[in-house]
Recover the amino acids of this structure.
């Protein structure tokens, strides 16, 4: 097989997984199932746009029987193009390994073979062979940083020719950003159910009741020194069943962001690159930093470390612990 062009995939899950290059063999590598499914959709869509009669076959490398790959790749009666999707490479058996290595030496014409590996070193011999041949490798890694999730939301709206403002993106990531498939579904709902520029009010209407969104409203008020609003929002959240743990997590994340930008100079874009944050997060943290001194930040960090342990089992009353943390933080901040 002549070497296929290498993919320029970035681990951050950029645009490339939305537009997978067609090649005789393609590798999807990594644990993020949502990105892998989107990459598969890209391949399927391209092949079926070329020929709607493309035949799809799915195989499981962990349950593979010797000879299956050659059998399904062989030409059919009417010579339709074929797409073969093989999952479970992380638990592949020896039969699949041997057949796959042999297939790479003489791939079938009019066949696209997509190999799906959830990560790790299992099947290193096959992975090395794929790399040596220059097979396109699409990184399917989780989007862990808010900056990556922000880029994801922005891209979802751009692809659908819709606009969403920066505050709305921030609110949406805060509300449903823990799970990428949920974040994608939220984008789809907002695109379908709204018109014009999507605003933070639109996001709040659909997702404002989510635990993450409530937690960040508490954190925003406390870090701005607005104790009454922070406490009333906190007590409402606790009364409606919100667990103290995500509330403390939101406070801790916001305090860490302030600590990162505290006393730093430079443009928002430069600091965002250096700190692994989005430019709007840098701007927000800088605004919040205006309420804080160095000693006050130390106080906030200490009380949050204590509170984190308390809400995770060290205290008999985690509700009291998180209320005390909110009071200490709001009092330490300068209004």
């Amino acid at each position: 097989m002549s070497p296929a062009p290498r993919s320029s995939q970035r681990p951050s899950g950029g645009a490339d997984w939305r537009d997978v290059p067609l090649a005789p063999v393609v590798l999807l590598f990594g644990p993020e199932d949502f990105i892998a499914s989107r990459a598969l959709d890209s391949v399927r869509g391209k092949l079926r746009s070329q020929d709607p009669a493309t035949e799809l076959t799915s195989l499981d490398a962990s349950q593979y029987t010797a000879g299956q790959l050659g059998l399904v790749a062989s030409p059919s009666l009417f010579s339709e193009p074929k797409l073969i999707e093989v999952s479970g490479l992380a638990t592949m058996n020896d039969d699949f390994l041997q057949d796959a290595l042999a297939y790479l030496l003489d791939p079938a014409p009019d066949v696209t073979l997509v190999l799906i590996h959830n990560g790790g070193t299992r099947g290193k011999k096959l992975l090395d062979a794929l790399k040596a041949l220059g097979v396109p490798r699409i990184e399917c890694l989780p989007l862990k940083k808010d900056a990556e999730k922000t880029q994801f939301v922005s891209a979802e709206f751009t692809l659908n020719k819709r606009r969403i403002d920066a505050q709305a993106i921030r609110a949406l990531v805060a509300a449903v950003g823990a799970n990428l498939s949920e974040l994608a579904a939220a984008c789809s709902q907002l695109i379908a159910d709204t018109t014009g520029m999507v605003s933070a009010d639109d996001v709040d209407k659909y997702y404002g009741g989510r635990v993450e969104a409530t937690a960040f409203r508490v954190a925003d008020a406390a870090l701005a020194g607005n104790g009454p609003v922070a406490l009333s929002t906190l007590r409402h959240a606790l009364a409606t069943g919100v667990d103290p743990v995500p509330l403390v997590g939101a406070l801790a994340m916001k305090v860490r962001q302030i600590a990162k930008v505290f006393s730093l100079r430079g443009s928002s874009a430069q600091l965002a690159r250096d700190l692994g944050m989005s430019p709007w997060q840098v701007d927000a943290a800088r605004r919040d930093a205006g309420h804080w001194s160095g000693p006050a930040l130390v106080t906030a960090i200490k009380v949050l470390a204590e509170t984190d342990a308390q809400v995770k089992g060290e205290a008999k009353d985690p509700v009291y612990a998180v209320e005390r943390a909110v009071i200490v933080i709001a009092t330490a901040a300068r209004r």
